Structures are given as C-alpha cells and as structure tokens.
Amino acid sequence: MPKIRVLLALIGVFCAIVGTTTGFLATPLNASDPDLVHILCPDETTGLTRDHKWITREAIRRNLRQFFINYPPPEKPEFIVPESASLTELYHAYYGAQASPARFIRAVNTIAESNVHADSSKSLRYDPNIQADAEIFDEYSYSMSDRYPQILTSILLDEAFPAARSLLGVTLHSLQKFYAHSTWVEQGNVDILADLGLPGFPGFDDPAEPGEDVCTPCPDAHGDCRDNVILGAGLTTGYYSYEDALAVDYLVPKPATGGKCSHGGVLDNTADESPIGGINKDTASPCFSPHYYLHDEAAELAVKATDHYLNVILDAVDVDQYRKLFDLYHGSALSIVMDTTGSMGNEIDAVKNQVHQIVESSSASVYILVPYNDPAVGPVTKTDDPKEFLAAVDALYPDGGGDFPEMFWGGLQLALTNTPEYGAIFCFTDATGKDGELLDGNIAMAQEKNTKVTLVFSGNLVSSNDRVTTVDDYRTLCDLTGGLFIPSDKFDIGEITPLLDDTVESTEVDINIMKEISEYKSIDIPIDDSIFDFKILIVGNPSSCVLRDHSGKEYNIMDEKAMRAEPNVEVISYTTSIRALRWNSPISGSWNLELTPATGTLSVDIQGNSTLSWLGGFALLDPSPPHPHYMAVEGRPLLNTIYYIDINLVGYIESKVKDVTQIEYVNIKGDHLRTIDYTGEIDDEFYVRSEPLPEEPFYILLHGHVESGHRFCRLMSVLITPVQASVEVASTTRELSAKPGERATGKFIVTNYGLESDFKITASDDKRFITSVTPSVHIPQNSSEYITVEFSVPTSAIPGAVSTVTVTAASLKQTQSVNSAITQFVVLPLEEDHDKPTCVVNDSPACDDFGYVGICQTKNWTASATLQDTGSGMEKVYPKPEGYSHHVDDFTRGSTTPIKVSLESSCCALQAEIIGVDVVGNVGKCQIDMGVLGGEIFDFHVIDIGETWAYLKWSITPTPIEVHKYTLVDNDDYTWEFPCKSETCYRNVTDLEPCLLQNFKLSPVFTVDGNDYRGRNEYASDTTLSREPGSPVGGRIVDVTETTVTVSWTPTDANCISLFQVCLKAIGFSDPVRCNTTKETTFDFENIEACARYEVQITPIDLEGDISRETLTIEVNTKEGVPGMPVDLQVEMETYDSASLTWWDPLDHALCVETYVVTTEISHGSYLKEISHRTYTSPVNVGIVPQKHYFEEKPLEGCTNYTFKVYPRGFSGTLGPYAREDKETLETDPIPVEFVNLDKVTTTTMDAAWSSVDTCVDHYKICHYNDYDAVEDCKDLIDTQTTFSDLLECLVYHVSVSTVTPSGVISEKIMSVAKTLDVAPSAPANLKTVKITAHSITIQYDDPVEHPQCAAHIGLDIAKADNGDHQSLTSRSLVVGHIKEHTFDKLDACTKYIIKIMASSPDGLHSEWDSIEATTDVEVSGAPQNFRVDGKTTTSINLKWFEPEINGRCVHKYELSWNDGSLTIEPPTPGGSLPHEMEQLVDGLSSCTEYTFELTPSTANHVDGPTVTLTDKTSC
To answer: Which residues are CB-contacts of 572 (< 8 A; sequence separation ≥ 6)?
Structure first.
C-alpha cells in the first residue's frame, strides 16, 4: 500500500523547501481544525479575521467598482452599480449576464496568490524587508519601491501581465504587512501612509531610534494586551523569533534593552522576552494577536492602502492596459498555431477562410498567431487590431520543411506565453514535433494557465527518438490540458475550423469531459438553471448516440438532418470525425447521453454557457510558525498526498447556488475514483480536505445544487497527473532579473519523493536568455538538490521585457517523477530611477464668482504647466479626468527636456490633474484645485428601502444660486419634480416595483435670469425588497396533441420571481405528479398520456428559492391517440378444450382504449385460419392505469396449437397493434402406430414406414438395433417414414416405432425385423501361435478387419511345410463365437507346419486365406531303424540306417562309436536337417577284424535316444 503523505508528518520536509509566513494570515483558515485550535483559539476569537487574500480581493473590488463608474461602457454612460456588488456581480453588471468572469477572477486570484506566495517562499517568508518586522524601515520601503518600476515596465513595454501580477502581489503583501505589524494604528492614525512603497517616498516621519523604548510589558506574555505602546514614542514594528534552521540568516534578534516590542502571539519566542507580549494585529484572536481588537482597523487601512497603490498604477498606465492587468475584456482570445511547411496548403487555406468569418462576426479581445516551420519559429503576432491580425494570417503560405518532423513545441511555447489564461489554442499540423525537449514544460505552462490546447492533425504516425515526439504525445498534450485531439482528412478541414469561431464567442464552463471511450457509455448531464445553453463535442466514430432531456425527449445525434431540423439545436460542425452541436435554452434537470463507438475510441466534451464556474487548486495546510496558512501547490501535485482543495466559486451569488455537496475524482474515461463529501458553508473561496490523490490521472468534478433544487456539475478541465517530484523557484525576483548586457543565475530546488534516481533537467524561456542549466542531478528518496540556470541578457534587450522561464526535472527511473516550475525573468532598466517627474503650474486659473452650477458654463479658465524628468525620461503626459481641452508639446519617449502642457475648461470643472509618467513608471503630477463647485449634489444614497418604496438622502454644496427644484428619475422611466431648500434633503419614493434594482438619477435645477439650468446628475441605486410573488395570470393552452401540451401564462411581481415551478397532475387516473422549473413563461410537457385529463399548476419561486403559496391552475384534455399494444398477454390452458387469457393495458395511450377485440386462430397448413372473433369490453376506468383484463375462449380441440390475438380499440374505432400468444390445448394418452413396414433393404440401408392417427402426436420415436452390437439407436421424427442408412451388412435389425405426445409421454412400441444383405468378410486378423508342444500347435486370431459382423464361419487348414504340394493334413469349419483360438494336436515333433485360416458370411461368401508357419517342439527320439552294413573292404565298413520311427525329425546328430574309434554325424549345414536315410563310411580299420558299432541319436537339446548295436568283420 502506498504511503500517504499527510502534511503534519512531512511538514519538516516541506519547510526545508518553503518555510513559513509573517503577516496578516495569508489565507482563510478553519480555526477549529485540530492542528490550529491551540494557535487561533476559536473560543476566544471575536469578529472575523481578514487575511491577505481577502484584503487584496476586497481592495481590488472597491477599486474596480470606481474604475467601472469612471470609465463606463459606451452603451451605459450613466453606469452605476451597488456599492456592495461582488467581483463577479461587478463584471456581469459591466459586461453582461452571459459574459464569463473566469479570466478576470483568475487574474485577481493570481495577484492574491502571489501575495500569499510571499508567505510561503523561503526566499521571501523570513525576510523582514518583505514582512515589515524588526524596525528595518529603510530596507523595507526600498524593497517595494525597487519593485515598482518592474511592475510598470512589464505592463507598459512587454505587456507581460502575468509577471506584473506576480510582482504586484509581493508588493501588496509588504504594503499590507505595515498596518498589521507596525504601531501606525496604535499611534492614532486613521488614514494610510500614502506614498509608502512608491519611488520618491520621503521616509517615515518619526521612526523609533535604535535605543528608544517603545513598548511596556503586557499583563501576560500571551493573550489580550492593551496600552503597551508608549505614547509619543517613534513608529516601530515588532520583533519575531521562532525555531527554524532556514530562518537563522534572516531573523533579527530582539534587542535586550527591555523596551522593544515583540510581534507577539503563541508562536513568537520573543513574546516571553522583556517587555513581554506583543503588538501584531494579524487576526481577531487574542491567542495569536495581542492587539486583536485593532485587527479591523488595520485590515481596513490595508485595504485602503492597496486601493491607493492600484490607483497609482492606473495613473501610470493607460486605461486599456489597466483593463488587461485584470483581464477585463469581453470575449476570448483567438489563438492559432500554424504549421507552414510545404504540405499544409489545405489547412492554411481553410484557416484563412474561417478566420475572416470570425473577425467579421465576433469581438475577440486579442488575436495571437504563431506560424512555425523548420527551423524557424514565429514571429508571433499579438494584437487587438483585427486588420493587423488578418494581414498576418493572409501572409501565411506553405513552404519548406522537408524532413517531416517540425518545430511544433517551440511554436506552442510562443502561443502559451502570449495567450491569456483560461484561453484556448488551436494548432494545425500534419507532422510531429522534433523539439521534444520543450514538451513537459509546455504542458506544465498550459496547465498552470488553464489553457486548453486542441490539435487538428492531418498527418500520419511517425516513430519516436530522443527528440522527435509522436502523435501519442499530441494526444497526451490535449488530454492533460482539457483540449481535443482531432484527426482530420485534409479535405474536411474546412468543416472543423468553425470550432474556432465557437471558441472565440463562447464563455463556456466544462460540465464533463470523457476520453478513450471504447464501449457503451451512459453519461449523466445535470443542466442547472444558470446554464443558458450547452454544447456537446464528440470526436471519433460512434455507432449510436442518443441524448435525452429531462422530460424524456430524444435527440438522435447520428441523424444530421434531424438535428439541423430541431429548432433549439445549432449544428456547429458535423463530419465523420467530429460532431459539435449546441442546445439553446435547455430545460433544466437531468439529461443523459448514451453512445457506443463503432470503431476506435470516442472523446466527449460537454460545455455550457453559464454564470457559474469554479477555479480550483491544491494546497497544503502549514501550521508551523510564524503564521499558519494554506500553502498553494505549484506544478503538479504529489502522489498519495492529502491536500486541501482551494475552491473559488465564480458567480455563485448570481447563480443562486444552494450548496456544494461533493467533490469527485474521475479518470480520463469518466470512471469514478474518489468522492469527497462536503457539508460545510460556501463562499467566494473555501477549502475542502481531500482524500489521498489517485495514482492515475484524473479530472475534478464539483457537485452541488442551485436554489431550485437542480443539481449542478462543473469540471476542472486540466487532467491532474500526480507525480513523485517537485520543482520550486528558490531565487527572488531580484535575482531573476538583469540589465541588458548582464548575466544572472537562478536557483531552483528539485525534491524527489520517489525512488532514488538521476533526474534530467531541462530549462527554456521564450526570449532565449538561458545559456546553460545543470543537465542532471542524482537525488535520493525524500531528498532535495539545488540546480542552477544561467541567464545572459543581450545588450539589445529592451528594459521591462519579461521572459517566461520553465524548468523541468524528469526522473530517468520513474515516468511519474516529473514536474516543472514556471517563473519570469525581467530585464531591468540600465539606470535606476526613483525620482518622479517634476510638474510646475505656470499660471493658476481662477473662477471667482463663477464656480456655481447655473453660471459656471459662462466662463472658461486656462492653465499651463511644465513637466520634466531628468532621469529615465518622459514616457507620457496627460490630463485627468478625461475630456479636458488640452495641448501637450511634442516629445520623444525618454525625453529629459521640459514639456509644456496647456489646459482649458469651463468653470464647471474646478479640479484637474496634469500627470507625467517617466519611462520606468514614476508618476509626477500637478494639482489644479479651485475649490468645490457650488450647487453639486454629493452623498446621494438610499437610506432605507422596502418592497415598494425607497428613502433617499443627499446634500448639495453651498451655492448662492437658489435651487429651483430637483428632478428625480427612477430607472429612466418615471420622473418626479419637487423642491428642497435645505443643504441636506430627503425624499421617499413610492410605487416602486419590488425585487428590482432601482437606479435613481437626481438633478438640481437652478433659475438664473429667469432661465432654468440643470446641474450635474448624481446616481444612487438599491434593490427593493422581495415579497411573495402572486399567482400568475392569463393562463392558456397554446397547443395540445395526444402526448404534448404547451401552456403559457403572465407573471405578477415578475421581478421577484427567479423561476416557475410547473407541475402536471393527472385527473381521474393514477400518474406521478411531474414538476419542472423554468425561467420562461411558456412550458412544454411531453410524453404524457393521450385521452387524459390533466391539471397544470404554475407556481412562482422567489429570489431566495422559496415557493409561493399562490398557484395558477389550468385544466387540459389531451387528444386521442392510437392505443399501444396490450402488455404481458398470458394464456393458460385450464382444460383440453378451453383457454383463459389475461393482459394489461398498453403502455402507450391506455386511456384511449374503449374495448378489446380477441381473435383465436389455428394453424392451417402454411397460414393461420381465424376461427373466433369476439369483442371484450374493458371495465369502467377506475383511475388505475394500467388495469389487468381477463377473458375465456372455448370450446377448443385438445392437443392443438392456437394463436390468440388481443387488439385494443380506441373510441373512434381504430385498432391498435395486437399482442399475440401461441398456446396448445391439453393432451390425451398416446396411441401406438398401427404397423411398421421394412423394405428396400440393401447391404447398408433399409426403408421404414408406419401408420398412425394424428391426435396428440407431437412426433414419433423410432429405434433400431442389431444382434451384433445390441446397441439401440433412437431418433425423433415428425414424418411417418424414414430411411436407415449407414447400417452394417449381414445383420438382422429390430425396428420399433412409438408415438410421443407434446408433453413427452411415449406410447408402446410396435416392432419389425429385417436383415441387411451379405458381403464377404476379410480374413480373420492377427493370426498367431500362442502355444507349441512337441505334438500340438495352438493358434489365436481376431475378427476380420473388414465386415467382421459378416464372419459367420471360420475355416482352418494345417499341412506339413516340407510337403511340396502342401497337402492338407486336416481342415475344419468353426462357427464364429467369442473364443477365437484353436489347437491342432497329434502332430509330429520337430516338424514345420503351415496353418491357413479364412472367414465366410452366413450366405457363404468367404474371404481369402491367411496363413502362418510353425514348428513343433523337440522330444527324445526312438532308436534308429534298420541299422545295417551296406558293403565293406579290408579297411572299411559302410553303414546305413533310417531315422527313428518315433520323433525321427528331432534327431539333431548321431554319435557312432566302435572298438577303437568314434565320430559325430551332424547335418551338412549348421541348422540344417539330417536326411531320412543315413549312410556313413567307417575307414581306417584293420583287415579281418571284427568290429562292434554303437549308434545313438541325439536331439538339439542334447538328449540321447536309445542306442542300437551292430557287429561285423572287415574283409581279409
């Protein structure tokens, strides 16, 4: 199981990298968190704690509200917005309800997060120059003023707004610290220190001297402390100390004089040093902040100081640049990356055509074009001028390339650097990228900026090497950034480019994204009330795709023609590879998309235009000293780590969000991975503790409800990929900057949480300042290493230029150990310039006696001033406010010569400023102030307000000219005129509409010389209170069909209504009540019952989501429809001659059934014949739908298959579709067949036929067997005849036939017998001897191989082998049986025999003979026969004899002996036989001598037989 990283367990590791904080709390915290209770003491806390994020956002909110009023929309010159309007409400009031504030909120959050980063980064968090600690005033002030020109030049010269926001956040952090950490508030100051943090700041009026006592001891070291600041002492800040090895070089020890103040609180070690206690006002908790009771005052001054600083920035940059700083513009960016190599002609032409249409029909805020080739990348075109952009697009042409892989990733890097956050980039290419070292850094930058990258690829796959990336890398890029990978044929590229137009004009939020869908998928799509329209993009080739809305209506997305015909559907793009459609004004509720891929996989992206979105990020809770906070995670989050999810709900007030219930992690296919339930409160920003992150990439879904009860779902489009390594910037902004011609070194920290590994380091920046980077580093597990990046700024670099730097570390051992850090490198001015331009008014204007409304327009004034900057030179000069007639001497940028400005206006304008801004952003100004214009209204506001009235108050500046009357206009509609002679006036305005924003315009009218002169208008606004809406009126039926009804109505108290609840209630029958909500005053109910009576109830829902008690009711009768098919027809056969039928009413149009028609049919050959047709009248409808019906059909025949049909008949007589059921009647006992006839017999076949009655016969069972194998073979037949084939020859077959009923009951068998014809068998097989004696031979044999069943008889024959004619000794015939053995006896010993065998059939057909040879065994022989002398001489005797009569063939040799000699007589050849008659000459004898001869036979096994004797005498 992977180890879960819990912050508290690893805080030491994190602190080794990021450290701690020192100011207002950086982020909101849950004081009841167990890790924080002892620090924040929630039980002792009074009021709210305002953190850095809140202070920054609140100051920006106030600042931009006034900015919007000062620079109203062209169509709203009298723009006014409530003072309490939130950031998103401000944005929507200015840009419209459907404009998305996501980029704007992200810009604000970036500044706030940079502010918080100063409390997290180890290079900033300890530094007293940043944190306003330890009485280091000069360095503290200088650190801010030194950063100021970097902020301005990044805006003015390079439009590097991300860098400007980052720098601005750090400065605001330091600025806000001053009011929490110093004694400014304790000294009684109620206003801000206006120039703090700006160049030219004159310094602090009365800072405490080093040895000056400024504090006295508190009653306790920790807790509430009052009056411990010495009155009259100099300004001071507290000393702060805590245990942290990384802070040692930063922290300043508290002097031991006994009179210096501590920061204070439970985490400050100096709080226990004399004087004990402290002065910080960071929180509303006495446990943490000794001066907690001054926290509100300090926070308010921090807000005002931030607001003032932003106004200085506004003075230094123009209005348009200030808007861009906050991403304040309507519409998105059109950002295109285009491969311009030679094969891209079709794509370039298609993009050109589409871009011209987009520019003509849309209002993109900025245009970015990045062409790339090989090896060239760029130049980038970034402009808000559509003509300039079109010229750049038209100049594109295909050329070059050649080696196929191109410089794609360099082109994307340029586009990412220049595209605003929350934008979309479209890339067009047909080749892979060869500059793959930029891949990981580009993905990291796109994810950080929440920029979707969609790639239209019209090429083929290519292999990968170390630098050349693949098409799969393109897919990964699109997946991880929330974009789409669109494979395209070069000929349909023109059908895809309309997506560009849709992206530019949309302000969409992601509802769901699913990719790699390889099988059927059902996708839930919650459509809440804040969604104006939604879009579905499907990439791939689906086989089916159906969308169902909340009412059940279906949209077949596969039917392009039908989709184009739908009135509320807009087809954006429809090709074989992509389908993009938009549903306008969708019904709120749960929709569902079902789709199945035909080939490959599908990607689905569901987006909606909505006022509700969310921004999210991961954070770690750092409870360590000096200040706990949520520490934002930079780069990719770590695997198996418990984080807090930072949730920013954008537009949740306007969207009437009721709750957030769940955070869900899903994989790229949409499969569920984790769920985090949430039951807490919601706000602009809140944190939710996460479960451990999954190991696979995942999306985050946010679930909840709006006040109507409808669910909402929003997806964060970045595919989160948890990793096991982190990269952090370790250098300060000062270290990451240099002047032209200088070098710099940046440090980064790489931490490895995975296996010990070597890490490959890559670094890039879009300005190409990087010259080298530590190429690799070896890092053990849970360890960190520093790496360095070297920068060289060319002398040609422009001061203020900002280069985006990306540093990536990738483990060579683990693919998931890769992460990036992104920062900015700033080019500094060649010379530092902290001096403001000078401005001297040459002549002071005067409007004596004319400075009053009514006569001020009769006199003009003129003034002139001279401005000069002797440092960096003048950047621009302008008057403020806008609208003055003025003239400025011509000058070139950087001019150091005097510049004269003349200004002219009527005496109706008595104040003006002449502003000069130098090159580095220092602002100098002249003030022209001739007093307050008399007769001007001020402090005009609503004191109190009710449902139909508003009580107004205002004052007017003193004027000798009498106010004749006031004119008050409400919402440019109703006008009141009335007098008021007091300097402060009141007016109660009545007859107002409730729940409506009331915009009041008040004008004084003066009488001069008998003529009326209208003074300057003043504005106030507020919203009348809500009241319960009354019942709608004018309800009517617009349209009604058999399944739909459309109703309309007119609301009362329309402004107090957020939605209408429209319910459909059945009358006279049971049907669930159907309720929906809608913003419209018409509603369609679909898929309702025909022939039905309904009640439609329309109830308003107020702005708080409460349902009114007043309801409008409309009754409606739907039209008749053709009834549907009866449901669940069942037929039960209770007897053999009757059937019981039951069925339910149809699912469709059941109420339209008057009667049912029942028909009964019987199969008649190849068709059904109707034998019954009867009408069944449905019971009186009792309000239950569906009803069950019963019907009996009789008489019927047994064992017969019937078809029963039930038709519904409508009131008009129309028959609906029938329900059908086939059923058989019960059966009788089976009747046997009458006979079985066997004929047409051959050797292997015979025919069988039989006769039977048909009653209850389902089929026949026919069996046969023979006596040879006695195995019965059966089969079921419907026919009454069959042919048996593959029978065996020569056998008698027994055939039986039985009838079988439908239930399987079998009758008795009827038998018949027949024999197949004979064939000759083959000879018995495997003939062999199994036993041999001297006088017998036993043989064995097997059945014939061929036709063994035909072997009825076996023929045997044996003969001596040495007979020339092999004449038989014996011949026998055996009947075939189980014993296959025979013994031949009475044979001669030692004799060779031939044995023959054959087989014959019953009819005498026989086989060929088979034979074997065998020799009988040896046995002792008898005596030789007729032993005699057959001639003699004087020296020899010739002997003869015959072989023994008994076993003569067994004699192997003879032993012959005589008086003085012997010899052995053997066969002439070894192994041969002795002849039947033997002859032997015995010579060498003596003459006339008598000899006795003895002859003995001997067998081969040396057994001697009887000896015979012979005596004779040789001749003389």
So the answer is: 498, 499, 502, 535, 580, 581, 582
- Angle, helices 498-505/345-361, rounded to nearest 10 degrees: 30
The residues with which 1483 forms a beta bridge, in sequence order, are none
Candidates 954, 510, 492; CA nearest to 717 is: 510
Element (H, E) at 571: strand 569-574
Query: Which of 30, 26, 29, 31 shows the shortest CA–CA distance to 53?
Result: 26
Q: What is the DSSP letter of 375?
A: S
Contacts of 343 (CB under 8 A, 6+ apart): 398, 401, 430, 431, 459
| pLDDT one-digit tens code per residue, 623-666 | 777 777 788 888 889 888 888 899 988 888 878 888 999 999 99
Task: Give the H or E element holding residue 52.
Answer: helix 52-70
Percent of the chain with pLDDT over 90: 43
User: What Å distances lie between residue 34 and 199, 965, 1274, CA to CA?
Assistant: 44, 64, 84
Over the stretch 822-834, which tens digit does the pLDDT of each residue have? 898 999 888 888 8
CA 421 to chain centre: 21
Give the separation between CA 88 and CA 57, rounded to whole angstroms. 12
> What are phi and psi for residue 377, nearest 5 degrees?
-130, 130
Report the alpha-carbon distance of residue 1311 to residue 1328 in Å, rounded: 43
Tell me how crowded residue 616 is: count the other CB atoms within 10 A of its CB: 18
Cα distance between residue 1178 and residue 1185, in whole Å:
12
The three-point CA angle 641-647-648 to 5° equals 155
Phi, psi of 165 (to 5 degrees): -65, -40
> What is the residue-wise DSSP string for 1426-1456?
EEEEEEE-SS-EEEEEEPPSSSGGGEEEEEE
Residue type, 1296: S
Distance CA 1044, CA 1031 (A): 24
- 1064 to 19, 1072, 1122: CA distances (angstroms): 62, 9, 22
Average the pLDDT over 1459-1465 and give the result. Answer: 91
Structure tokens of 414?
Answer: 């340029």
Quick check: 464 pLDDT over 60?
Answer: no
| Angle, vertex CA 131, rays to CA 128 and CA 132, nearest 5 | 80
| Torsion on CA atoms 459, 464, 469, 470, rounded to nearest 10 | 40
Rounded alpha-carbon distances, angstroms, from residue 1288 to 487, 1243, 1284, 1292, 1320: 69, 7, 11, 9, 13
- Per-residue confidence band for 4, with pLDDT thresholds at 50, 70 and 90: very low
Q: pLDDT tens digits, residue range 946-968?
A: 999 999 999 999 998 889 999 99
What lies within 8 Å, CB to CB, of 198 at 6+ separation is 144, 145, 148, 309, 312
| Amino acid at position 858, single letter | T
Gap between the Cα atoms of 144 and 146, Å rounded: 5
Separation of alpha carbons 427 and 457, rounded Å = 8
What are all long-range contacts of 387-390, with beta carbons under 8 Å and residues at least 24 apart? 389/334, 389/355, 389/359, 390/355, 390/356, 390/359
d(CA 341, CA 1015) in angstroms, rounded, equals 65
Strands, sheet with 1201-1210, edge to edge from the N-terminal-most edge strand: 1167-1177, 1153-1164, 1201-1210, 1219-1224
**Cα separation, 1328 vs 1342, whole angstroms:** 10
Asked whether residue 36 carries a pLDDT value surpassing 70, the answer given is no
Helix (H/G/I), strand (E/B), else coil: 394: helix
pLDDT on residue 517: 92
**Bond before 375 cis per omega within 30 degrees:** yes
Q: Report CA dihedral (662, 664, 670, 671) to the nearest 10 degrees.
A: -110
Helix axes 161-181, 137-156, angle to 10 degrees: 160
Q: What is the DSSP letter of 1215?
A: B
On the question of pLDDT at 11 being above 50, the answer is no
Question: Phi and psi of 578, rounded to 5°?
Answer: -150, 140
